[in-house]
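Example record used in the benchmark description.
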Amino acid sequence: MTGTLTGIYRYPVKGLSAQRLDRATLTAGETLPLDRAWAIENGPGRFDPENPRHLPKVAFLMLMRDERLASLDARFEEKNSRLVLLRGGRQVASGDLTTRSGRQIVEQFMAAFMGPSLRGPPRIVSAPGHSFTDTAAKWLHVINLASVRELERIVGRPIDPLRFRPNLIVDGFEPWAEFAWLGREIGIGPARLSVTARTERCAATNVDPATGARDMDIPAVLQRKRGHSDFGVYAEVRTGEEIATGDPVVI
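Model output (structure tokens):
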């Protein structure tokens, strides 16, 4: 089976919008570079940068519960680690996430923006080599575009693939073919990945990534039509190389 890599996405700050990449260098056993490298703690935090460990996503601001985040356009400037937040096309905050003063600017905006939904002052956290992914393992999330199109047919409306927070979007396969890839290897250009698990979807997929409106119930639709709420698969990088959109994808 052969397809094409049509999209590469990372999320520098957990819960905020995606950053599309034309190419990325994969490293064995790691996520995409800078994917979920920062997170915003919701109130009194348990994350210790000196002893980083995986915490459940409810410890942080995230779309499943905080859909207002989707109304922000987050732009990350890698050369200076600057996060720029826009709302309705207007810049509302900007700060270097590697400096205390830069983080405070963003934290102050988030405190006002999120308001009473916060459990306490928000705090931007990170640690070298740590990724705030939903799974403790450092996996990439792969979405089959044919499955998105089939789900669109089922619900009778367009569905933005970014609802599923993908790292990689592939096309050229049959709908739902990805569930047969478990335990198999994916070749993307020169890189090799091993498919490790199906992705059980949560209420974050109900949020329109462009507007922040909670306008669908995708897990319920999947459960009713497919008998489960899975959509997409996780994959572990086995052989790290540079990948680019347009690369062939071989199962």
